[in-house]
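Board notes (copied after class):
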Amino acid sequence: MRLGTVTYNLAKDWDIPTIISRCTATGFEAVELRTTHKHGVEPSISKEQREAVKKQFEGSKVRLLSLGTICEYHSPDLNIVKQNIETTREFVVLAHDIGAIGVKVRPNGLPRDVPKEKTLEQIGKALRECGEFGKRYGVEIWLEVHGSGTQEPPNIRTIMDVANHEYVGVCWNSNPTDVVDGSVKKSFDLLKNWIRSVHINELYREQYPWRELFTLLKSIKYDRYCLAEIPESQEPERLMRYYRALYRELSR
């Protein structure tokens, strides 16, 4: 289990050389590039630009792990769902071209006046379609535990049961709604078979049982990255060093 970061929002204004240099200097080993940020890695970039991105990371100690998108499949308008599936496919091809292994997507809420079960099934079926496409490129689809109502772990579990695809996993998001009676074990057990990525946030928050989470991740032999999703700072490298020190203490 190793530490990395998402560019949301710590690194949202950093270009790729800055991401690499600051992560290298502070011991962060991987990055998830979130769409719309200064790094500029989007489906619109050319073949040559994709190769240049790949080479920059391959020549560094920082792994380009994944792409963070805002693709979502909960809308009652099926044309919008179709558009989001197509955008997901574009990010899958981009991830393949630059050497990333995952594309993070999300649910973003339960529409009013639509039965919950119908929405969860719709999301799951869309994920299965995206997973089948991802399999062709060796790129996984990671569903972030996100959105009002949809972030409830039992609802994410329902979605994953519907998706039922080897290339579709969960991005654990360290939400307050994970916690039941001071523990995340109940929520973790619902989703542990699908965890492919982990977002962590403010490690000083004592309301969230970080040490328990890291122990549970070790229990399933999770050997990927915990990605810091924290606000930007005027002293980013200083913050990152303190964050890494706290992460190492809580996860040992």
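Comment from the instructor: The chain has one domain: 2-251. The longest strand covers residues 63-68.
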